[in-house]
Amino acid sequence: MRWMIGKARGTARADAHCPLCEARAESHAEVERVAYFACRQCDFIFADPAMLERVDAGEPLREYDAAYWESELASARQRAWGSSLARAAEALLYCSIPVRNFLDIGTGPGYLLDALTTYLPSHRDRFHGVEKFPPPPTDRSTHPNYIVSDLRDVDATFECGTCIEVLEHLTPAMARALAQAMAKVSADGALFVVNTGLTEYVRKEDPGYLDPWRRGHITCWSVAAAAKVFAPAGFAVHPLGGKTWAFAVEKLPARDARPGPLRDRIWHAPEDNRRLLADPRMGEVMYLLGIESARAY
Fold this sequence. Notes:
- This protein is α/β, with parallel strands linked by helices.
- Helix content is 30%, strand content 21%.
- The chain has helices at 49-56, 66-80, 83-94, 111-119, 172-185, 199-204, 223-230, 271-277, 285-295; strands at residues 15-17, 24-31, 34-39, 45-47, 102-105, 127-131, 146-148, 158-164, 186-195, 219-220, 235-239, 246-251.
- The longest helix has 15 residues, at 66-80.
- It is globular, with a radius of gyration of 19 Å.
- The two termini are 33 Å apart.
């Protein structure tokens, strides 16, 4: 995805129809001459539907070029060696099936692969990352499981993973395509933690998260909104208590609803997943990170 749509002001609009549920949405904010709307029914915040349609038609907002990656690499590295490690550890403890292959979706430069390899070196081969629009080779991970591809073209099966700072860049149509691609590569019971600023986060903590031109943040999701695109692809969508910037999706057989908060699962994670997080060389630091991060909110 490339982002280069011009910044010309369009016709002012007071409301719009939600592209997820078709309910009437009200004006939420105007950011850099882009109108954002909020749906009261599914709590979805989205940029002007005309802009979303142009993005879907292939008009980029911003080029994923050297200038983009120069500004993005520092924040990607900071996340990978910090909060993203915590999300990965949590995902492995929330997952109810043994994890043979872990996937970071939209891995960017692949720094999370490097961080996971550092802290879990005995299981380096289990971690994979996929990126459709990678930075130059000199700025990306050399991990052997760094995959340059559209997710839908990946020929492998995964039990667990992360999708970090991706969803807010996607139109509803793109999000539906992502959900279908995730379903294609997911084992039954696979779980992914999706890290993105939710509508509660934007309203109460960081209104500046809506950022159409510099970061390409054109949508803002709630758990209810996410269910509109992930449930049709066969996923249950789980809130993560206290986290206004993440949720989880789980591909389940229809007969298995798995009620209750995910946080309760950390004490009963499959033994294989607990062993994976307690590396023979590095000790239990990742296991403890997952436990404490799940309980901290």
